[in-house]
Amino acid sequence: MNFAQLLQVISFTALVTLGLALLVMRLGGALRGWLRRRLPPRYLKPLGVRHRAARQEPQNND
């Protein structure tokens, strides 16, 4: 294998990898959209640390 063939193989591999990455991203977006249409909103909320609401002081109207 000479240098030109090696560059062709490398470029072809890079293009195939890029194409597969774009395909996976598109399929992931389609799956996410399908889930949003099928699931109720309570299952789509992001999970994380829940904080208590800040306590509000009563206002004095003097």
Brief digest:
By secondary structure, this protein is mainly α.
Description:
- With 62 residues, this protein is an all-alpha fold.
- It has a domain at 3-39.
- Helices cover 58% and strands 0% of the residues.
- It has one helix and no strands.
- The mean pLDDT is 84.
Helix and strand topology:
Blueprint: H1 3-38
Mean pLDDT: 84
Helical coverage, percent range: 55-70%
Portion of residues in beta strands equals: under 5%
Largest sheet: none
Q: What's the total count of β strands?
A: 0
- Poorly predicted ranges: none
Question: Order of helices and strands, N to C?
Answer: H
Estimated structural class: mainly alpha
CA distance, first residue to last residue: 91 Å
Shape: elongated
DSSP summary: helix tally: 1
Rg: 26 Å
Features of the shown structure:
62 residues, 1 helix, elongated
